[in-house]
Amino acid sequence: MELKKGKLVRFYSDGKKHKEPSVLETPSSIYKLSSSTLLKSSNNVLPLGKNKIGGSKVFPEDHEPWRKRILDPGSEIVLKWNRVFIVSCLVALFLDPLYFYLPSVIQNTGSSCVRTDLTLRIVVTFLRTIADAFYLLHIMIKFRTAYVAPSSRVFGRGELVMDPTKIARRYIRSDFFIDFIATLPLPQMVIWFIIPATRTPQTDHKNNALALIVLLQYVPRLYLIFPLSSQIIKATGVVTKTAWAGAAYNLLLYMLASHVLGASWYLLSVDRYTTCWKSLCKKEDNPNNCFLYLDCTSLNNGMRKIWANSTDVFSSCDPSNDIQFKYGLFQNALTKHVVSSNFISKYLYCLWWGLQQLSSYGQNLDTSTFIGETSFAIVIAILGLVLFAHLIGNMQTYLQSITIRLEEWRLKRRDTEEWMGHRQLPEDLRFRVRRFVQYKWLATRGVDEETILRSLPTDLRRDIQRHLCLDLVRRVPFFSQMDDQLLDAICERLRQIR
């Protein structure tokens, strides 16, 4: 690769020193290594795999501000950030469905109304804004992260493109749009601006239609987890370091799906309840006032109290009465007063409902002939089948990996017992065989050490052998006075006796 600037090596043997701005001085020589020489070539690329000095990545040493530095995609800081960001993604996916719990029903004697939980709205908006900051920071980091030039890629290695302009151009053409959509504060705008602006006596309560807009942003946010997990797996081999953590991670994703399903069920239950009210309001003499009185902002209005005493809207929509309106799978949310409970009570009940339906594939749902309700039940059945099968498969894989060595040892011990019985070995030989098998398990835990050592590089295998055998060899009086090189040669030729 042709470099723009050469590397100058100058020697001054007579003690004369020529002062230059960017010079690394030593007692006998002065080396001038330009940062542009190390990092820039004719096409602004950096060799990946040949950019290490003393085990460290080579990056600009010209003290540029942190906001102008280019990050190596395989560096430790990028890997740590990916792990932090995937946790923040899971937290953000948990926060978004909490907006569905904002509408609640206030039930008084003979009348009801719908209100928005202001405290919950403020808390969720604050937490959601913090989560959005992580998405914005992720975009900034991706604008400053180098990438491997496709034309130079060989067996997964290649040259890193360090030019910020090329990095930005490539990022904008690939993943920027999805990241930008995921970063937008859509729920905040819907709750604080769109709903108050459209709330008029004629537009009634359509919290569900506006809140479902949040799900449009939920899709790209959920999508970001998969390429992020692939990057972590490509760098480290696994997302989680232990089998128990992997099982917990898959269980957390299943709980997240139950959380989203329960929140959606709650919101649709409130909407179904208000739909019954609105269908009866249309039969009133003054339907506009009826729509207005369904909002709790008019709860202390004197005209509303008179109207509530004379109307049959609430009694005709009370699920405990014999009514014509069918609530279907939303019946429990109304008869058990979930829609009018405090946040903790209704959240736990909805989470349990989501877990129950996903685990049973929606088999215990009693739906009406309403198209939206039937479609929701179909989605529950399909999601439950797919997610539950995915959870069981992954949990089985992770948990089996914990005990696979133990099961192999048990099978081998059983085969040994059957072989000794078939050959009719005497009891003393059987005892010695059992004792050896037990000793081998306690010493190695079923791991084939020779196979692991043979797969390692020669220098690393030599260092391991030195670590395992050096103290043992030095205990022998004949070897205690020998030099290290001879002891290393002895250690290399030692073999474990089985």
From TrEMBL:
InterPro entries: cNMP-bd_dom_sf, Ion_trans_dom, K_chnl_volt-dep_EAG/ELK/ERG. It holds the Pfam family Ion_trans. It is found in: Endomembrane system. It is a multi-pass membrane protein. Keywords: Ion channel, Ion transport, Ligand-gated ion channel, Membrane, Transmembrane, Transmembrane helix, Transport. The keyword Transmembrane applies. SUPFAM superfamilies: cAMP-binding domain-like, Voltage-gated potassium channels. The chain crosses the membrane at residues 84-102, 122-141, 176-195, 207-226, 247-268, 370-392. GO terms for cellular component: endomembrane system; membrane. Residues 81-404 form the Ion transport domain. One of its GO terms (molecular function) is voltage-gated potassium channel activity. Belongs to the cyclic nucleotide-gated cation channel (TC 1.A.1.5) family. This is Ion transport domain-containing protein. It comes from Vicia faba. The lineage of its organism: Eukaryota, Viridiplantae, Streptophyta, Embryophyta, Tracheophyta.
